[in-house]
Specification:
Two copies of one chain form a homodimer. By secondary structure, chain A is of the alpha+beta class. Helices cover about 40% and strands about 20% of the residues of chain A. Chain A has helices at about 15-25, 25-35, 40-50, 55-65, 90, 95-110, and strands at about 70-75, 80-85, 115-120, 130-135, 140, 145-150. The radius of gyration of chain A is 19 Å and the shape is globular. Chain A starts with 14 loop residues before the first helix and ends with a strand.
């Protein structure tokens, strides 16, 4: 395991804590799940997540405010203009976190029927997994192979 | 972007939602951050996270109950026996999620001083990043290269 002495950074500077301040609410992550699935419209997101409408409005506004989603106008024939929600680059960069949660849940929490979705590489069709690589190209099999180096 | 039609799985079966039911609370992730940093004892975890003691007790019990941490007895000379908390394999498997949150926060939320910690490969010292690979060995650069295939 990693040594306690590795924790000489200031916990209040921790990027995990900061990320959680932005994302650390269950509905927020579920809204992002919808966005990554291409579900962009309020009513569809509401239906798929089951979030109360007011909560969903707040979460969407929060994600727009933090630059994770952007509002894009659209108009159906005969309807008033509405907005849909699309991931920004900042939002798209959260994909490995969501896939990590997905695969951990698939491994430990799926019911007898197994996982409900498989992620595949569009180009070749092979299944996709989250992993870690070092800059020298070695794949990292576990946390035990990683050393945190304090920078401050 | 991914197509809406890709979302033909049942959202209630979603492994992300299930993972969040277990993990979806800010203190829980911060406790795991400590565990991955080798901080295993109640008082040290309490000091580093700032979690109220009663909340921390509940979160630790929750993580033990879900098999993510395990309690291991220890005894300092002249003191009563206490327990420390160590990651199980199920807990260790959450590492990419935490590293994903760390690096996203480093990229988008760090202050002027930059990130407070760098993760390096123990064997070679090179910096470590989270990424996605397909089973044919292609690295996946973005969510746009992934196709979700419903299994149910």
């Amino acid at each position: 395991m990693l040594k306690p002495t590795a924790l000489r950074y200031r916990p209040e500077d921790c990027s995990i804590a900061r990320s959680l301040e932005v994302l650390g609410e269950r509905w927020t992550i579920l809204v992002l799940r919808e966005a990554f699935s291409g579900v962009r419209r309020f009513d569809d997101i509401q239906q798929n997540t089951g979030a109360p409408r007011q909560v969903l409005s707040q979460r969407l506004a929060h994600l727009v405010e933090h630059g994770i989603l952007r509002r894009v106008p659209y108009q159906e024939p005969g309807q008033r203009q509405r907005h849909e929600y699309r991931l920004t680059e900042k939002g798209l960069d959260l994909y490995p976190v969501l896939v990590g949660l997905l695969h951990w849940g698939d491994k430990y929490l799926a019911d007898e029927g197994g996982p409900s979705v498989r992620l595949t590489h569009k180009d070749c069709g092979a299944p996709v997994r989250v992993t870690m690589l070092c800059a020298d190209g070695h794949e990292i099999g576990s946390a035990r192979e990683v050393r945190p180096v304090p920078l401050s």
